[in-house]
């Protein structure tokens, strides 16, 4: 644990890291148990300060608003967690892909960017909508655990949701967050330390609560997904 | 009020039931914990309506994600506290949603120092956190508490304490490092 780690732990727990810093730090937390333990410890130690806020009677109206939404229009998202714990199925089922679209787009896209960038991605994935018909984003994966994401057609997010990018390095590891973002735009994300991306590796974007999935695994609906291909 | 005579079940025992889809367990958790969480959110957000919105989202999130709570990683109250703080801070940072009038903002900022003092004074004399906060320079202590207790960011804390941004950043960094060392 370096002094810089201690600073980051403190600033993270105080809610002071910028979005990109917080994402990078959370990616580390997913992979460094010692760091995660130190965060949990400081959070628990500071909780007596939260307790000094006292209590405010919440009232039945607030509970009623919550109860109304448990099976409201967002019923799919509001189902209890256990019923949705088979999230990992998302990664293996309904993966029928329009391969020709993927390759055509990937090749066309690469040709277009050769002139403007000297940095070469190791893998490229075209992420398609759930029914496999509409491309929604392109992921360029680099050897240094970063990706460049080029979204072009993503479902608008509700105000209390963010987009979260995931990859599945292998089934044992399970889905790993590459980062979250608010506004669809070309951006670079830095993921945790992972093996180099492989052909066929899955990438997907889900809608998650603000701040990213609280479980560290995808919980929200999948907007787009696709497999990595090696650029020619 | 017969129901208040029964002790509340421990949140740790309610959460697995919530994960199993028992709505009554969520209602019990709400009854036991919402008052404390609402107070935490309101101290950060200042407005009752926003604090209630935060609590609403937290309980919906508990309903959806109760299965992810891991007892070995901390108490259920701690889990709820962190979720509430994060939700409130996200709303606060997403400034467009918070419509304070100009005069109101200044007045609210003025209040923040008082909130921080009240929080510190309310800590038990036996609390190791109080001891470690007392060991910090007054300026570092206030900077850390302004950010944690009232959810100010660096810039707001700098304005409240009337010092440059870089000074606040350095006070907070050194403050949180010293705090962790003292609490270790």
Properties at a glance:
heterodimer, A: 232 residues, alpha+beta, 2 domains, 6 helices, 31% helix, globular, B: 184 residues, mainly alpha, Rna Polymerase Sigma Factor, Chain: A, Arc Repressor Mutant, subunit A, 9 helices, disordered N terminus
What percent of the residues of chain A sit in helical stretches (DSSP H or I)? Answer: 25-40%
Proportion of β residues of chain B?
Answer: under 5%
Report the strand count of chain B.
0
Give the low-confidence spans of chain B.
1-5
Average pLDDT reading of chain A:
79
What is the CATH topology of the largest domain in chain B? Rna Polymerase Sigma Factor, Chain: A
- End-to-end separation of chain B: 44 Å
Helix run count of chain B: 9
Low-pLDDT residue spans of chain A: 74-117
Explain what you see.
The complex is a heterodimer of chains A (232) and B (184). Chain A has two domains: 3-51, no CATH class; 87-229, no CATH class. Helices cover 31% and strands 23% of the residues of chain A. Chain A contains six helices and eight strands. In chain A, strands 5-4-7-8-1-2-3-6 form an eight-stranded antiparallel β-sheet. In chain A, helix 1 crosses helix 3 (33-51) and helix 2 (19-31) packs across helix 3 (33-51). The longest helix of chain A is centred in the N-terminal third of the chain and has 19 residues, at 33-51. Chain B has 184 residues and is mainly alpha-helical. Chain B folds into two domains: 1-99, Orthogonal Bundle (Rna Polymerase Sigma Factor, Chain: A); 101-184, Orthogonal Bundle (Arc Repressor Mutant, subunit A). In chain B, 74% of the residues lie in helices and 0% in strands. Chain B contains nine helices and no strands. In chain B, helix 1 (11-19) packs across helix 2 and helix 3 (48-65) packs across helix 4 (76-93). Chain B is globular, with a radius of gyration of 18 Å. The N and C termini of chain B lie far apart (44 Å). At the A-B interface, helix 1, helix 3 and helix 4 of A face helix 2, helix 3, helix 4, helix 5 and helix 7 of B.
């Amino acid at each position: 644990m370096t002094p810089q780690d201690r600073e980051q732990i403190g600033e993270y727990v105080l809610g002071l890291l910028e979005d990109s810093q917080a994402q990078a730090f959370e990616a580390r937390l997913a992979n460094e148990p010692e760091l995660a333990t130190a965060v949990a410890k400081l959070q628990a130690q500071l909780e007596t300060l939260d307790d000094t806020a006292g209590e405010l009677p919440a009232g039945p109206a607030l509970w009623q608003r919550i109860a109304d939404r448990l099976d409201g229009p967002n019923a799919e998202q509001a189902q209890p967690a256990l019923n949705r714990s088979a999230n990992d199925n998302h990664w293996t089922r309904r993966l029928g892909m329009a391969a020709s679209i993927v390759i055509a787009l990937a090749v066309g896209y690469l040709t277009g960017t050769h002139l403007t960038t000297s940095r070469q991605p190791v893998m490229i994935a075209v992420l398609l909508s759930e029914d496999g018909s509409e491309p929604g984003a392109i992921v360029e994966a680099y050897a240094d655990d970063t990706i460049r994401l080029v979204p072009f057609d993503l479902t608008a997010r509700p105000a209390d949701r963010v987009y979260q990018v995931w990859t599945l390095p292998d089934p044992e590891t399970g889905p790993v967050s590459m980062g979250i973002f608010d506004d669809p735009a070309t951006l670079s994300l830095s993921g945790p330390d992972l093996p180099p991306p492989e052909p066929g590796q899955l990438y997907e974007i889900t809608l998650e609560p603000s701040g990213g999935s609280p479980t560290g695994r995808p919980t929200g609906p999948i907007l787009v997904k696709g497999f990595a291909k090696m650029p020619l | 009020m017969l129901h208040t005579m029964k002790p509340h079940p421990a949140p740790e025992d309610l959460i697995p039931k919530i994960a199993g889809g028992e709505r009554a367990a969520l209602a019990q958790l709400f009854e036991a914990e919402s008052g404390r969480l609402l107070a935490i959110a309101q101290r950060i957000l200042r407005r009752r309506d926003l604090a209630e919105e935060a609590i609403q989202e937290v309980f919906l999130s508990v309903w959806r994600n109760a299965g992810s709570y891991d007892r070995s990683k901390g108490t259920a109250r701690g889990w709820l506290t962190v979720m509430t703080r994060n939700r409130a801070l996200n709303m606060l940072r997403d400034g467009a949603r918070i419509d304070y009038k100009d005069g109101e903002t200044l007045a609210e900022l003025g209040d923040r120092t008082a909130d921080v003092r009240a929080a510190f004074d309310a800590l038990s004399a036996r609390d190791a956190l109080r001891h470690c906060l007392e060991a910090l320079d007054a300026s570092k202590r206030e900077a850390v508490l302004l950010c944690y207790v009232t959810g100010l960011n660096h810039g707001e804390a700098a304005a409240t304490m009337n010092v440059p941004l870089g000074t606040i950043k350095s006070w907070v960094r050194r403050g949180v490092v010293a705090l962790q060392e003292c609490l270790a």
